[in-house]
Amino acid sequence: MLRLSLLLLVGPLDALRVAVTGAGGQTGQHAFRKLLALPEFEPVGIVRSEESKAALVKSGVPADAVTVADVTDEAAIAAALAGCDALIIGTSAKPAPSGETDESTGRPIFGFPNGQPEAVDWLGQKSQIDGAKAAGAIHVVLCSSMGGTDPGNMLNALGRESLPDGSTKGGDILLWKRKAEKYLIDSGVPFTIVHPGGLLNEPGGKRQLVLGVDDERTVGERSIPREDVAEVLVQALRIPAYRGRSFDLRSMNEGEGAVTTDFAALLDELGGRDCDYSLGKMA
């Protein structure tokens, strides 16, 4: 913590080595590229496949800044995190249409072709947290999702299958995410947990951002550009007051309010509040 405080005060005497998982994805890649542009950081992008690495390198990212490791492989992710001072967790199970339709509703059935939430959002994030702790990381920033206080949230139904005995398997993505969040809180590693609302593929830096807790919505929209989420993830590493905080992140519509530029003052919106993990449920 002292090292980071000195770095913030006097500049990059020794760049902070930050791993970013999910660096080949959308939000994670925004965070990775932002860190690459900042001299106080030495980012390492962790991707799941050689194809993802090749795509980043082709786009101009230095090859030695990208490591291939599957977060569901505990040994591989631990090796990838060795020597890292901090971690941004940008991984998530990704739902996709299965090509089948629910006969009772007529709606498309979604699955998780690259890993169920239990494997990715719980065990994969647990492995990342354990690896960061073993590496001596001074900060883990976790990008999660809003909706965790409502077990009936529609996202939990994606990929869930009903079994003949009346039980279910698969799905429950927000329940597994919430379990990983609580594991991080209890790990003893300094943390920041960010719950974005609906993610937009729109330019960042054009909106007033809104913080809250426990899925409340009094002002603003339930959505936010991915690039703005990535900016908050990066600022959480730069501003010590973000450590030990868990909050929701949304935005106003573009053109409403004043564009957020002071990320330290943004925390004032919380009034000392953090998300309450006695609400809802976890897997």
Automatic annotation (TrEMBL):
InterPro entries in UniProt: NAD(P)-bd_dom, NAD(P)-bd_dom_sf, SARED1-like
Keyword Signal: yes
Keyword Mitochondrion: no
GO molecular function, one term: oxidoreductase activity
Signal peptide start and end residues: 1-15
SUPFAM superfamilies reported in the protein's UniProt record: NAD(P)-binding Rossmann-fold domains
Domain named NAD(P)-binding: residues: 22-238
Keywords per UniProt: Signal
A Pfam family recorded for this sequence: NAD_binding_10
Protein name: NAD(P)-binding domain-containing protein
Gene source species: Emiliania huxleyi (strain CCMP1516)
Lineage, highest ranks first: Eukaryota, Haptista, Haptophyta, Prymnesiophyceae, Isochrysidales
